[in-house]
Amino acid sequence: MDSQLKKGLLEYSVLAALAPADSYGYQVIKDCPPALGVTLSTLYPLLRRLESDGRVTTFTRLHQGRARKYYHLTSLGRKSIQDFVAEWPQVETVVEQIQAAAQMLPDQEAQK
Amino acid sequence: MTRETFLMRLGTGLRGHVPAGEAKRLVAYYDEMIQDLIEDGSTEADAVAQVGDPNDLVFAAAQSVPETPSQPAHPRLLLWLLLILGAPLWGALAVAALCVVASLDLILWCGPLIGACLASGFTLGGGLAVVVSPFALIGTFDYGLTQLGAGLLLLGAGLLIGWATWQLTRLCWRGHALLFRWVATQWQRPKAVFA
């Protein structure tokens, strides 16, 4: 997948991973689709940005004798997901346009 | 590499490259990740290897330091407070500095002033001596001739000094402009620092 496309989808995928329940970093990586290629180092700045945007809050909970940081999806985060889904039809029209152009490409090659 | 070594290298590497609070958060984040990986079945060495090289993480962190919130108004308020409270000290120093600059400028213009006085004195005196020398020639020829010669000499010297003064004035004008330009840059510098 194109890196710019991945970048755009990544934060919504992370938000979606937090939608069912509060989660922690390692679990978020496992819940995101492998196609996005979320790594430990790419997740950290993303979570920091979501936290500073107010779309995610954090809290610490004890787990097997150690502190583990959990991420909670805020109402702003939920709205962000809803907005993304609402805008998807517009993205689809762009995809359709690109697909139509892609179908025309072999014909142009044949004309040459 | 053990978890302890990794965290130590990461913490040391981050020091000075990212704010202390951010460094602490990063170390805690990667520590948690290593422990989660171990809990998920990886060995300590494998978990550390999966997290990556501490140097690369430091480099990545230094490249993307999270945005810090805009500074509150307090430092600016504090700055104004310090400026007002320190006015007796910095005010006196500023007045002294201005006096020094004014003195330098005055010294600079002393040359042309002396030159102008000499030139005008010599020219006027010489001119007058030349103009009245015919009367002296009628009275006592020797005195009159000496007065005419001395008058012409003074007039010539006055004109030469006048020309030299004009050249000196041009130089002084340049020096004056340079001095005030320098003063202006000193005035603008603190503004740039506080901006």
Number of helices of chain B: 7
Count of extended strands of chain A: 3
CATH fourth-tier homologous superfamily of chain A? Winged helix-like DNA-binding domain superfamily/Winged helix DNA-binding domain
* Cα shape of chain B: rod-shaped
The tally of helices of chain A reads 4
Low-confidence runs of at least 5 consecutive residues of chain A: none
Query: Major sheet of chain A: order of its strands?
Result: 1-3-2
- Bin the strand percentage of chain A: 15-25%
Range of helix content of chain B: over 70%
Mean pLDDT of chain A: 88
First-last Cα distance of chain A: 30 Å
- The domain count of chain B comes to 2
Give the helix level of chain A as a range of percent: 55-70%
CATH topology of chain A: Arc Repressor Mutant, subunit A
The gross shape of chain A turns out to be elongated
CATH architectural arrangement of chain A: Orthogonal Bundle
* Biggest sheet overview of chain B: none
Structural class by SSE content of chain B: mainly alpha
Uncertain ranges of chain B: 190-195
In terms of quaternary structure, the protein is heterodimer
Series of H and E elements of chain B: HHHHHHH
